[in-house]
Inverse folding.
């Protein structure tokens, strides 16, 4: 693949729920090996995959993911926990990016909503979530990568923060079956691609055949892949058109050539109004 193109292995696994979740690590390694054999440049897993899902954490997949990424020469986006206090069961929820060159994984700590309620009392997760407060962007040989998580898709500020920092490819993996949220969730994945002129990638965990997945790859102008089924899907992604839209200015006649609004990250921006969007206490309105 060229610098403007990459092959994505999008994994929507039939996973092992707690307390069997450590078994997901060996499955994840096999997925990466299979993906690399099929020419993948990136492998994308769901939120919290391969785990762990609960505190206190009983395993850490980081070493295995970093080893297989380096051995197979691919980038691997995966999910895990960053334990903070075992007694209090506090942790950051992480998305990590293991790199083919080796070294420590790139790390995003979920930022929204404020904790800890979101991961308590469920049948899958059980920990006291602590929110992060940073929006790192990671350089790869194919483009700038940002990561966000699950229902953060409902918070457009998160992906906008990443795109304004240069993210071209945004991994936005999700957790479990969306139930009645499925339709709006799908809509928002594409919306985040449209408004940020980015490639947005999502997938989720499945635990039985009755559940409906949501694996998607959205560009600003179209959804190029989606599936509700379990499996690993190979998707060739072209970055050239997205980059072309980012470089253009929007014109009165642009709707004749473009299916998304060009210029929204440059031409349309008014930084002088940022404080007015959400004014600080005591500031003039």
């Amino acid at each position: 693949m060229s610098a403007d193109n990459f092959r994505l292995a999008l994994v929507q696994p039939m996973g092992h729920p707690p307390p069997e979740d450590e078994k997901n690590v060996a499955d994840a390694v096999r997925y990466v090996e299979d993906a690399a054999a099929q020419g993948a440049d990136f492998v994308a897993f769901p939120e919290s995959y391969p785990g762990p899902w609960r505190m206190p954490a009983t395993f850490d997949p980081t070493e295995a993911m970093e080893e297989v990424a380096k051995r197979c020469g691919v980038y691997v986006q995966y999910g895990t926990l960053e334990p903070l206090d075992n007694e209090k069961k506090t942790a950051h929820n992480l998305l990590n990016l293991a790199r083919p060159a080796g070294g420590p994984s790139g790390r995003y700590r979920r930022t929204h909503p404020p904790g800890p309620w979101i991961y308590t009392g469920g049948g899958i997760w059980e920990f006291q979530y602590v929110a992060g407060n940073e929006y790192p962007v990671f350089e790869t040989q194919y483009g700038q990568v940002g990561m966000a998580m699950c229902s953060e898709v409902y918070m457009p500020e998160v992906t906008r923060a990443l795109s304004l920092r240069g993210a071209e490819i945004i991994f936005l993996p999700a957790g479990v079956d969306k139930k009645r949220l499925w339709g709006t969730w799908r809509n928002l994945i594409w919306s985040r691609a449209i408004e940020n002129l980015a490639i947005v990638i999502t997938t989720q965990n499945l635990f039985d055949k009755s559940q409906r997945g949501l694996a998607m790859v959205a560009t600003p102008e179209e959804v190029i892949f989606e599936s509700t089924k379990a499996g690993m899907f190979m998707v060739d992604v072209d970055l050239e058109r997205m980059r072309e839209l980012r470089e253009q200015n929007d014109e009165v006649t642009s709707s004749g050539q473009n299916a998304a609004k060009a210029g929204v990250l440059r031409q349309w921006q008014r930084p002088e109004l940022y404080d007015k969007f959400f004014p600080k206490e005591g500031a003039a309105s």
Remarks:
- The chain has a mean pLDDT of 95.
- The longest helix spans residues 23-37.
- The first strand starts at residue 5 and ends at 12.
- DSSP finds six helices and 13 strands in the chain.
